[in-house]
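User: You have something folded?
Assistant:
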Amino acid sequence: MKYNNYLIFRDDGVGDLLLITPVLKLIKKYDKKSNILLISSSRNNSYAELLLRENLVDDTYNIDQNKLFGRAYSLYYLVRKIHKFNPSVSLIYRQKLQSYLISKIFCKNNFGLVTINSSNYFKKRYRPFKFLTNYLLDDYVVIDQRDNFKNIYVDHWSDFYLDLFKKAYQKIFNKNLSITQKDKKYVKTIDENLNNILIKSLNEINNTSDFILLHIDEKWSNTNWSPHDLDNLIDKIIKSLNVKIIISEGASENSYSDFIYKKYLYKKNKNTDFNISLTSSDKMKNVAIFKDLDIEKLILLSLNASLVITNHGSLTHFSSINDVPVIDLIHKNKKEYLKKYYPKSSVNEQVILNSVEELLIIIKKLYKS
């Protein structure tokens, strides 16, 4: 069987990259001598490096790494990298006209996503432009996002990404590809030594490896909850379930974790084994705040939790790798869109934040279920 150099554009978020890991698995399974160059972003490059370590990709390039020097400079180094790689197939999962044009120049076979939206002026607005689609791409998957996503035909958004690879496979190898449920599973990137260190650290901190992971990031500011509401929830969880809670933080500082940190006079110390900043409080003994977590350690935390509570994002999907129960907090205006991004854990619930009491009922239902 012939092999190919695959150029894959996924230069957006961490969760977005996780959702195409089934595609990376299939390429390595069916095109065994293939090489993959993954175009990542500053947002997901650390996870791209984990995929490189696991030999799911052969090289990565952070498209944002030269941004400070200007757009032309950044584009030059991107083009130089791709030219040197000499790709034969492109899979474009992040829709940017630049990516389509570069692929057209350097690749023989190009495959991408085409979305349809509507506006005040157009009933159908294509991206990329409809008149360019057949010129730029050898085949594509259409995602019709009109009418509040009612035309979406797949069960899960990641199925679009697999459908695109199926089209590429049929074109390249002239035969159909059958995909199983096992093929659809996300890739597990676990350093067992680091995971054992985490479990040891958790036992030292909590005297138990049983905990709820509560992820507090900047997305909480988009909810109708105040920091006091979140504090109230934490208090009620502890009193009703008598469970340990570990708080993880997002990339940016936010008023919610800051409120808890200051109210309970958390003291910062270092967990040398796990190499993180750990904060503990005499006033809140059942709650620890883990700071300075990189993506690998955050993933490991989610995989070891008894329940993950997070605003919709990468942890929603990472938790599914180990089938950890997930409460996926979503905004009511994005309900129709995000229901196709549901967590794949067998126990999960997408929840629109209302009252503390309502969320507490769901937490009690899913914890250790």
